[in-house]
Structure formats: structure tokens, C-alpha cells
Amino acid sequence: MICRGRFAPSPTGELHFGSLLAALASCLEARARGGEWRVRMEDVDTPRTVPGAAEAILACLEAHGFVWEGETLWQSRRREAYREALATLQSRGLAYPCACSRREIAVATDIRAIDGGLRYPGTCRHGLPPGRIARAWRLRTEDADIAFIDRIQGRICQNLARDVGDFVLWRADGQFAYQLAVVVDDAFQGITHIVRGADLLDSTSRQIYLQRCLGYDVPEYLHVPVATNAADEKLSKQTGAPALDVRQPVANLTRALAFLGQRPPQELSKASVAEVWAWALAHWKPENIPRTRRLRTNGREQPSCGATRR
Ligand code: GLU
Q1: How far, in Å, CA of 51 to CA of 280, rounded?
Q2: Strand pairing category for 193-197 and 220-224
Q3: What does the DSSP 8-state code read for residue 293?
Q4: Residues with Cβ < 8 Å from 192, sequence gap 6 or more?
């Protein structure tokens, strides 16, 4: 079976150092296995999509020497596939309609889910209360452990009913949820190796459960540490992470390699983009990626000595 990896950015802003890590690690892992690498634009959440961001992301990838197989897949054009998957889950009694507003959930519970949000108290689990209409569709979770071995983070185990609760597949604002879209598209694109930031580690059990419910194969997972700034906040547009400078691809790539524990030699800073890629492929050692969920960078986006383990 051919190994296939992917990079799946959300076009909510330009690429920053944190997203370069996921792009680079996923591409190197797929290529080192002699496999393919795809790009998927996760623009399913239309309200969060920033005009022009998708095009800027693709141009930035190209400027950094990334090459991908096939056409870029756009989630905004995949709604029919998500609708079909939701219909399958509905027909199997696994998805149910939910009438609850955020406020009603907040009144009904104060139990937190693993992501810090309120865990759905199950109000509509056995049917909509009389006179109420569906706002969203949720997945019925099980009171059973879902465990997997992440190649960097080790064994991860969640009980979805306890740690997450019945989660949303189709949102009250008419959008399909990320968890459903990502699973449908990974299966559609035949992705066998998912490499991405450790901020998505806690979503993985939900995705594995959905893969099982839909009869899909479960891919392998590798979650690289999330880059944080000096205040230990995840690099993102919200925390003011600068967009990658497309005129500095070699510097950006070598910094990303260093962050991923690959120890690029000093001379590489004077090499061409193609030479950096050749070195990176020949020396790719995923086992050297730091085994932590978060890793602090200093202002120059180098791993700092005070890196914390979790
Ligand atoms: N679109 C998601 C993000 O940018 C990544 C999804 C994934 O890699 O599974 O955070």
C-alpha cells in the first residue's frame, strides 16, 4: 500500500512558523517512506475563512519548495460528501438532532470536556424534547476507551463519553464540523499517515471513533510539538505570530528542521532551497522529534533551552 501524507491548513491567515512545522514534517515523513503528499484547503468553516489566505498559503508553500501530488482539495467543494457521511451516521442511529443552545447547555451542566468547553449533558440524546426543533446534529459517543499509539507522543487514551461527550457534526450555523470533514476527506484522499501539530492530539480519538463508525481505515498518527512564543502561547494569528517571510525560505526551513530535532549543519544556511530539501530528506529522523506537546521558541523561532515537557 502506498504511503500518503497530507497538509491541511485552514485559510484563516497566512502561514506562520507553527504551520510550516506541520507542512514540513508531514511532507518529509511521506517522502521518506517513498509516498505521496497532498494539500487540502480546510475552508469548510466559511465564517472563519479570510479572503486571499488560501492563495497566500499555496504561494508560500511553493516559495519554500513544497511540491504536492494532485490538485489541492477544497473542503468548501466537498459539502455533498459530508452530507452523505452524516446521512450514513443518521441511518445507523449514531447521529442525533440536538435543540440545545449554548446557554441551555451552560445552565444544564458545569462539567468540562478535555478541550475546556462544557461537556454536552445529553439532553437530546434520547429524542428532542417536545416542541423543540433541531439546531445541530451530534454524534453519540461511547463509554469505552479509544486508544492509539502516536509515534511521538506515545499511547493516548480517551473515553469519549467521559472526556469529550457527544460532539457536533453539523453546527447550528449550518456548517459541517471540522471533525466530520477531516475524517471524510482523509478517507477520500486515501491518507495513511497523518502528521500534524500536537494541538490536534485531543481530537484524534474523536476522529478514530468517526472512522470506525463510517467503516474507514484508521491511519497512523504522528503529532509534532506545537511551537509556542516566549509567553508559551501557541504561535497563531491571534497571538501575533508573524507570517513566514517568503524571501527567506532557506532560513525558515532550516529553523523548522532544527525545531524538529533534525540538527541541520550550519553550512545549510547558505544552501539553495533544493539543497535544503535534499539534506532534509536524506537525514530525516522522526525519532529525533522532541517528545513533548509544546515547545517554546525564542524570538528567532529556535527551540529555547527552557523547553517544557508535558
Ligand atoms: N485545518 C486544521 C488546522 O489548520 C488541521 C487539520 C488537520 O491537520 O487534521 O489546524
Answers
A1: 33
A2: parallel
A3: S
A4: 1, 2, 3, 4, 5, 35, 217, 219, 220
What's the pLDDT tens digit per position in 85-138?
999 999 999 999 999 999 999 999 999 999 999 999 999 999 999 999 999 999
> At 171, is the secondary structure helix, strand, or coil?
coil
Q: Which of 176, 174, 219 is nearest to 200 (CA)?
A: 219
**Contact, 215 vs 284, CB < 8 A?**
no
Measured torsion, CA atoms of residues 26, 30, 32, 34, in degrees rounded to the nearest 10: -170
Hey, what's the cell of 231? Answer: 509567553
- For the CA of 12, the closest atom of ligand 1 is 4
Mutate to test the pocket of ligand 1, among 61, 196, 202 (most ligand atoms within 8 A of CB): 196
203 with 179: CB under 8 angstroms? yes
The CA 182 to ligand 1 mean position distance, Å, reads 8
pTM for this prediction: 0.94
Residues 6+ apart with CB under 8 A from 67: 37
The residue whose grid cell reads 510539538 is 225
C-beta of 182 in contact with ligand 1 (< 6 A): yes
User: Could you give the CA distance from residue 249 to residue 244 in angstroms, rounded to a whole number?
Assistant: 8
22-56 pLDDT tens trace: 999 999 999 999 999 999 999 999 889 999 999 99
